[in-house]
Design goal:
Layout lengths: L1 H72 L2
Length: 75
């Protein structure tokens, strides 16, 4: 009886170990997917930063142009 209980416990532990391996593989795949998503988000963030800088430059140029027109009109 003791051997039977021991064998059942070993079998359960082996099943748990197999389940843990499967779960770890799934977690590794998810981690890899999250890393790819993070990379894509970083590239999008970089592009948005460049667009923001371009818009800032356009706004400055526009304001400088308006100020020149105003200064010419005031002469």
């Amino acid at each position: 009886m003791k051997q039977e209980t021991y064998d059942k416990a070993i079998n359960l532990l082996e099943e748990m170990q197999a389940d843990i391996k499967v779960a770890n593989n799934k977690l590794d795949k998810m981690d890899s997917k999250f890393n790819r998503i993070d990379s894509k988000l970083n590239r999008i963030d970089d592009k948005l930063d460049r667009i923001d800088n371009k818009l800032d430059n356009l706004s400055k140029e526009f304001n400088e142009g308006v100020n020149r027109i105003i200064s010419i009109g005031g002469k």
